Structures are given as C-alpha cells and as structure tokens.
Amino acid sequence: MPEARARRRASPDGLGARRREARERALSLLYEAEAKDCEPGAVLQSLPVPPDPFAVDVVAGVAEHRAELDALITGHARGWTIERMPVLDRTLLRMALYELSHRPDVPTGVVISEAVELAQRYSTDDSGRFVNGMLGKIAPSLRPASGHEPGDTAHAAGEPAGTG
User: Fold this and answer.
1) Where are the domains of the chain?
2) What backbone phi and psi angles, to 5 degrees, belong to 115?
C-alpha cells in the first residue's frame, strides 16, 4: 500500500527526484557563495557545466529577492537575528520562501517537506524543527489556503475532490 501511494505522488517523468537533487545543488551553490562572500551568480558562472535549470532558478531567485526573503525571515524570527542563524538554516529558509513566493507550480507541502529534510540532513540537530516552525508561520501569508494546491487538477478544474 505505501508503495502505491509513493507511485501516485511521484510524477511519471521523475520530476520530484530531479527537483530534490536540484534543491540540494542549489543549497550547495548558495552556501558556497556565502562562504566565499560573493554573489550567487558568480558561483553559477564559474561552473564548467551548468546545473539543472530548477537549481539555477532557485539560486538566481534567492539572489534577486534576497532582501524580500530576509525581511520575511526577520519579521517572523522571534529572538533570532538572521546573522545568528546557522548558515544552512537561513539558506534553506531563503530557498523555501523563494519557492513559496515565486514558484506557484510547486506545492506548499513539497516546499516545506524538502526544506525540513535538507535541514535535518545537513544542519544542526534542531534545524529541522526550526525550519519547519519558521516556514509554518510564514507560508500562510504567502499562500493563503485556496482549497487546492498546484498540480491538483481536479480542484483546479473546479471539480470536487475524489472525482475523476
């Protein structure tokens, strides 16, 4: 039964797996830019082979909208300055908030789950909970509940859930 659910969630062309890898690559590129104190675009341009287009979009989007993303983080971080957050946590928050605010094609739950998973894998022991809590507070202001998520064709077409 769980295998059937996993097959239903996974897109037939492997888009979910490719995007997961692209997010991981975007995280490493944004981390590199911060570690080298340079612009993310310069890191992208220095690569001998360009990364997945989704990774490029996330890196470029975070760079372009950084002030807006940091304002969202700062406005919801109680007792934390953005500079005090672990580098990977703030980078993951920026990435997820970019997707939530500028990539309506990616479902909210996917954005949050992927960010939490990356935080658990690469950052501190408390990072998964921290990233989840922050995104849980901010996401509703960026994506008010509309009754459907991107990719939910039944709802998007105005049909009740469970039909079709």
Assistant:
1) 15-144
2) -65, -45
DSSP letters, 50-68, are ---HHHHHHHHHHHHTHHH
CA 53/CA 26 separation, integer angstroms: 10
CA dist., res. 97 & res. 105, Å (int): 14
As a whole number of angstroms, the distance between CA 63 and CA 65 comes to 6
What CATH topology corresponds to 15-144?
Answer: N-utilizing Substance Protein B Homolog; Chain A (1.10.940)
Return all residues near 101 (Cβ < 8 A) that are at least 6 apart.
65, 68, 69, 72, 142
Using one digit for the tens of pLDDT, what is the confidence trace for 50-85? Answer: 999 999 999 999 999 999 999 999 999 988 899 999
Tens digit of pLDDT for each residue in 20-55? 999 999 999 999 999 999 999 999 999 999 999 999
Please enumerate in sequence order all residues whose Cβ is within 8 A of that of 13, keeping only pairs 6 or more positions apart, or say none. Answer: none
Could you tell me if 73 and 82 are in contact, meaning their C-beta atoms sit under 8 angstroms apart? Answer: yes
